[in-house]
Each structure stands twice: as C-alpha cells, then as structure tokens.
C-alpha cells in the first residue's frame, strides 16, 4: 500500500515491482527495476528516502528515515529479509543479509557486506569493501568490529556515540528517560493519524 504522509507521496519508477502487502509511506523515491517484496515497510518519518536502481528489498525488511537522518540506498543493493535500515546511507553494491541492523547516521561504503544478524551502529562509518561477520557489531568512525560477547568494549565505544541524545534529543542520565522518550516519540509517530492511502 502507498500512503501520503506529511503531505508527501511516494514516487515509484514504472519498472519497479511493489508487492501488494508492502507499505511505502511519505517522501520516498524508488528507482528503476527495484523489487520490494511482501511485508516490507519503507517509511519516511519527516526525512526523505531515496532508493537507487536495481535494489531488492526483501520480505519484512524495514527502511525508515527521520527528520534528522534521511536514507539513501545506492544502486544494486540487496536488503535482506527482516533487515532494518534507519536513517543511514548505503552506497552501491552493498549486501545487507537477513536480520541485519543499520542505525541512524551510519554510512556503509560500496561493495560492503553486513552478514546475517550483524549490526552497524549509530554514526558508524564502514569504508568501501568492508565485511561485518555474522552476528558481529561495527561501532564508531572509523568502524571497529567486535563479536557480540565483547559487550563491555562495544559499550565503551557506543556510549560516546550517545544513542538517546543523537536519535531522541534526550540525555541518557535523565531519571525518567523512557517516559520522556516514549511520550516524545509517540507524539511524532501520531502524525500518521493524518496519512492518506493512495491505492
């Protein structure tokens, strides 16, 4: 289904194929010969999403832009099943495997691979032709790669990236952080109440 959101409607190249159960909402531009499979959600939450040519967005993948972090996906990218891309820039010829997570402000260089269930964290920069192994976490600029069992080292790097401050504008030490976060984010998401279906 296609939705107008915040006054913007998706623009889809006539050669693109969008599954009937996919959702595309707001300021989204989809290039030639793109395939968006069943259950995928591509939603521009105040910032634009641009998807190049010959991109495949597989089943139940999520691509989300925010007002501060648009999404750009270059040509010949595969976004695997249940992968998530939030406010990131993905260069051309990148493979995002099943279950990968790419967070706000991240940049992935061309011909990189983010393998099954791997994570590219907030504001992390992967140079061209990088590989994030299965289940590993890339953090920082330049990216450092960690296996998941090295949580303390991941946290030491990740803490400086300030996820709640960068994404939600909130100080991590706020006593009622989750109260403020859910109320603020809920108000922003409530703008979908005015969405208009286009099909």
Question: Which series of helices and strands comes N to C?
Answer: EEEEEEEEEEEEEEEEEEEEEEEHHHE
The number of helical elements comes to 3
How are strands sequenced across the largest beta sheet? 23-22-19-16-13-10-7-4-1-24
CATH homologous superfamily descriptor: Hexapeptide repeat proteins
Rounded mean pLDDT is 93
What is the CA–CA distance across the termini?
6 Å
Q: Can you name the CATH architecture? A: 3 Solenoid
If you consult CATH, what is the topology?
UDP N-Acetylglucosamine Acyltransferase, domain 1
User: Regarding CATH, which class?
Assistant: Mainly Beta
Largest sheet: 10 strands, mixed
What gyration radius follows from the Cα positions, in whole Å?
17 Å
Helix content: 10-25%
Tertiary shape = globular
**Percent strand:** 25-35%
Structural class: alpha/beta
How many domains? The number is: 1
State the total count of DSSP E strands: 24
* Uncertain spans: none
């Amino acid at each position: 289904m296609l939705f107008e959101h915040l006054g913007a409607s998706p623009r889809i190249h006539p050669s693109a194929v969008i599954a009937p159960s996919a959702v595309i909402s707001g300021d989204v531009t989809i290039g030639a010969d793109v395939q968006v499979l069943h259950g995928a959600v591509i939603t521009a939450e105040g910032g634009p999403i641009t998807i190049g040519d010959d991109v495949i967005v597989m089943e139940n993948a999520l691509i989300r832009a925010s007002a501060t972090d648009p999404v750009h996906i270059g040509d010949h990218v595969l976004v695997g099943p249940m992968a998530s891309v939030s406010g990131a820039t993905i260069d051309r010829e990148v493979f995002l495997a099943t279950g990968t997570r790419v967070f706000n402000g991240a940049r992935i260089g061309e011909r990189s691979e983010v393998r099954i269930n791997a994570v590219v964290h907030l504001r992390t920069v992967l140079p061209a032709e990088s590989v994030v192994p299965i289940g590993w976490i890339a953090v920082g600029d330049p990216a450092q790669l960690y296996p998941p069992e090295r949580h303390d080292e991941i946290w030491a790097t990740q803490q400086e990236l300030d996820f709640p401050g960068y994404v939600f504008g909130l100080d991590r030490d706020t006593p009622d952080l989750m109260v403020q976060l859910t109320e603020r984010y809920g108000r922003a998401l409530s703008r979908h109440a005015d969405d208009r279906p286009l099909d």
